[in-house]
Sugar transferase
Amino acid sequence: MDGICTLANDRVYDQLVALLNSIEAVLGKNIPVWVYPYDNNTEKIAAEIAKRSHVMLYDHADSLQTWDNFAQAVWDIHPTARKVWRQVGSNNYHRFGTHRRFCAFDGPMERFLYLDADTLLMGAVHQIFSQLEYHDCVVYDFQYKDPSHVYQISSPRLTTIFPPVRREREIFCSGFYASKKGLFDQEKRNWLLAQLKTGEAEILYPLAPDQTIINYMMMRSGCSIYNFALNLPPNERTGCCVTSNHFQAQDNILYDKGRRLTYLHYIGLSPRLFARVCAGENIDFPYRDVFLYYRYLHQPSTINHEGNLYCSK
């Protein structure tokens, strides 16, 4: 079974509703969607998910605990993570819960596409799943241009473990990737932890905990990673990030120089911003109208002709 999954709690309620609506608008209700709980703060999203027959809140306690234990073990090995986290105000594990997206590796789907809650699906995904016939992981992004948010690039071990030619081809953003069930069983997780204990943990980047871990897991295991951004001809590839200001909207779908986006990632925008906008504040941000369209897809009367909420202050 193929499916889509994401990670959420009540803090990202508005983004999750928009994402689920975008998936429904583009793919319909036939593809199952699983939501992994970031933490126990899920009352609002659980109520929303209950309204959708094709969407499920993942509640496999053993699986959640397995990946909680794995993430803790990874960071307990890291030589400087605690110090780095204290410097940014985190006294415990930083952004603990982001790793729960890895539950997909032992979840109900044989093949899955993971999307962050702060994304909107814009286009078909059959080509993503088609590449899983030949590869272990399929992505579509340009994170390889900035490895500093994936690994500690100052670590002398990094080049030994992952030479530049691999980093230039295999690094990816953890906000959108497709993969397969069963890649990381207990034996493989134990093997990865053993490699980290040899000193390799120092290459992990503590401020992007899920992103550095999933890249390490895939790359260190020798998984085949296919990136559309590196394989499509230049005249066919598109961007995906909200930081790109040249996308054009047509019928609430974004296009990059005439080419339809696969997804839009509102990366770097705080959940508080979306909550404030959906509470009625008239705050501008890139592709705001597109977000509001999907957020209120089933409540179109909520938005006035100027693209603002009727309750705007």
Summary: The chain has two domains: 2-231, 250-256+263-302.
